[in-house]
Write a structure and sequence with these properties.
The complex is a heterodimer. Chain A is an alpha/beta fold. Chain A folds into two domains: about 1-180, Flavodoxin domain (Rossmann fold, 3-Layer(aba) Sandwich); about 185-225. In chain A, about 40% of the residues lie in helices and about 15% in strands. Chain A has a six-stranded parallel beta sheet with strand order 2-1-3-4-5-6, sandwiched between helices. In chain A, strand 1, helix 1 (about 15-30) and strand 2 (about 35-40) form a beta-alpha-beta unit. In chain A, helix 1 packs across helix 5. The longest helix of chain A has 19 residues, at about 180-200. In chain A, about 40% of the residues are buried. Chain B is α/β, with parallel strands linked by helices. Chain B has one domain: Flavodoxin domain (Rossmann fold, 3-Layer(aba) Sandwich), CATH 3.40.50. The two termini of chain B are about 20 Å apart. Classes of the chains: A alpha/beta, B alpha/beta. The structure holds flavin mononucleotide (FMN). Flavin mononucleotide sits at the interface of chains A and B.
């Protein structure tokens, strides 16, 4: 089976989507040829796009942006649609991860991929939504299926089984096996404040409001746009 | 102030909004927009402003001045077109990185006190009922996350039906 995995994260460095792909790949690689496509630096070329549409299975792993599919992946989906799939016997799965705690908030993005699948007459497999996505890299040394990685492990296991057997499955929305209040406190203490500090910013600066009057600037830009 | 985020040609926009007042800001496609790269620089490096300098770095501030935000977008898979979505992705500096729990769901805290009404016009020849359902849930979720006071979603076969 030829499986194409599309990492839809636009992050330049390591992403949670990449980690999810790393979790999934060994579970589905036996007797299958797997190709992973990254969309973060350059747009996929003609050869890569033709490769994707000739797959038996397509898996999208991507972050939730503003309650839906990030714009870079949206462009790719439209690009693939334009090329027209040579076969309708292609299974489509997706794993969406989001910043908020509740994996359930990924349900709209999963439905968007389902809609793309219907428009292209492909076979919908399953969607997984994983909450607290920025926490996953912190947990990467804990084996899947254990402790805070319990729910993610179970979901990835079910998904890989369905991919291997070319079956559909119920969409699953999960969060790490971890208290939400703790996650919320930790996100400030271990993520936002230290990252700001590494940029030389004090805590209070994170709350800053932009005061400058950019309005003229914007109007000028608009004028330029009109002239072009 | 009214903010119109749209994916039309400016001449097309003029046919549906012939008189655009001084207190309206148009966010239009100039062919130069960059993808959000998920760096969170707009929260932890230059709080409130995107680090990508392409003329679209001030979306957070623009939203902080809005009373009404009107979005005009071709509908793709129940959501926005790539340009409009790109603008929304670049709009998270409007919010703070910090979380709050409301109705048992996580959302971001507000950077500004300002709130606005959100009106979304989706156009497209073959918008399915499945896509309309998705669009309704999407705009509702956007309104909650952007702290909008109200939201409205409308569908059209063609953009020139938008009045
Ligand atoms: C522009 C932007 C918009 C986002 N919008 C949402 C959102 O609406 N809901 C949410 O839960 N997380 C949102 N997030 C958080 C990401 O989904 C989260 O950081 C995710 O773990 C990133 O995954 P990645 O590392 O695979 O790119 C957003 C992040 C960015 C940069």
């Amino acid at each position: 089976m030829k499986i194409s995995i599309i990492n839809g994260s636009p992050k330049l460095g390591k992403s949670t989507s990449e980690l999810i792909v790393e979790y999934l790949t060994p579970l589905i690689s036996k007797n299958n040829s797997i190709e992973v496509f990254n969309t973060n630096t350059t747009a996929l070329n003609e050869g890569q796009l033709s490769g994707i549409i000739c797959s038996d299975t397509i898996i999208f792993a991507f972050p939730l942006y503003v309650d839906s599919i990030p714009s870079n992946l949206l462009r790719l989906l439209i690009g693939l649609e334009k090329r027209q799939f040579p076969s309708q016997n292609i299974m489509v799965y997706c794993v969406v991860n989001n910043g908020f705690f509740e994996g359930k908030q990924n349900h709209i993005a999963v439905k968007q991929i389902k809609s793309w699948c219907a428009i292209n007459h492909l076979i919908w497999g399953q969607g997984i939504g994983i909450g607290a996505g920025e926490m996953l890299p912190f947990l990467k040394d804990i084996p899947l299926g254990h402790g805070p990685n319990k729910n993610i492990g179970n979901a990835i296991k079910q998904l890989s089984f369905n991919i291997l057997t070319r079956q559909g499955g119920e969409d699953l929305f999960i969060s790490p096996n971890w208290p939400r209040f703790l996650w919320k406190v930790q996100s400030s203490l271990f993520v936002w404040y230290p990252r700001a500090k590494s940029n030389g910013l004090k805590k209070s600066r994170l709350f800053e409001q932009v005061q400058k009057n950019y309005l003229d600037n914007i109007k000028q830009l608009e004028q330029k746009g009109k002239k072009q | 102030m009214t903010v119109i985020i749209h994916d039309l040609e400016n001449t097309e926009l003029q046919t549906i909004f012939p008189q655009i007042g001084k207190d309206t800001v148009l966010v239009s496609e100039k062919g130069s927009i960059k993808n959000c790269i998920g760096c969170f620089g707009c929260w932890i490096k230059t709080p409130g402003t995107c680090v990508l300098k392409d003329g679209y770095e001030n979306m957070g501030w623009i939203l902080s001045q809005a009373e009404t935000v009107i979005i005009i977008s071709k509908c793709y898979y129940g959501g926005y077109s790539p340009f409009v979505k790109n603008i929304l992705d670049r709009s998270i500096p409007f919010l703070l990185p910090f979380f709050k729990i409301e109705k048992n769901e996580t959302h971001h805290k507000q950077r500004y006190k300002n709130t606005f009404q959100l009106v979304v016009h989706f156009y497209g020849e073959n918008i399915t009922s499945q896509e309309m359902d998705i669009a309704h849930s999407l705009v509702k979720a956007n309104a909650i996350n952007l702290h909008a006071t109200s939201c409205k979603v409308l569908f059209y076969q063609s953009f020139n039906q938008i009045a």
